[in-house]
Amino acid sequence: KFTAQLGQILAHMETLGQIPTGDVPEVVPPAKPVLRKDIPTPSLSVEAALSNAPAQSNDLILVPKIVE
């Protein structure tokens, strides 16, 4: 089943390869950086980050053990 489908796909690719595209300009989208610059910015203080934690110890949030 898949062999026949692959054969059809390859035959279609050959058909597409016969289309004259010599006069068509290439379209290449401009490359844009997708990541922001890594600039340090002010963040929450430890106290503010832990203010809503139900349990904490040594500036860490305590959570229940889930793996034995």
List keywords for this structure.
single chain, 68 residues, mainly alpha, two-stranded antiparallel ribbon, 2 helices, 2 strands, elongated
Could you give a quick summary of the protein structure above?
The chain is mainly α. The chain has helices spanning 2-17, 46-50; strands at 56-57, 60-61. The protein has a two-stranded antiparallel ribbon with strand order 1-2.
Structural class: mainly alpha
Question: DSSP strand (E) fraction?
Answer: 5-15%
- Biggest sheet strand order reads 1-2
- The proportion of residues forming helix, as a percent range, comes to 25-40%
| Apparent shape | elongated
- Poorly predicted ranges: none
Distance between the termini: 48 Å
Write down how many β-strands occur, each being a DSSP E stretch of 2 or more residues.
2
Nearest-angstrom radius of gyration? 29 Å
What's the tally of helices? 2
**N-to-C series of helices and strands:** HHEE
Describe the 3D structure.
- With 68 residues, the protein is mainly α.
- It is 31% helix and 6% strand.
- The protein is built from 2 helices and 2 strands; from the N terminus they run ααββ.
- The protein has helices spanning 2-17, 46-50, and strands at 56-57, 60-61.
- Strands 1-2 form a two-stranded antiparallel ribbon.
- The longest helix has 16 residues, at 2-17.
- It starts with a helix and ends in a 7-residue tail after the last strand.
Topology (SSEs and partners):
Layout: H1 2-17, H2 46-50, E1 56-57, E2 60-61
Antiparallel strand pairs: 1-2
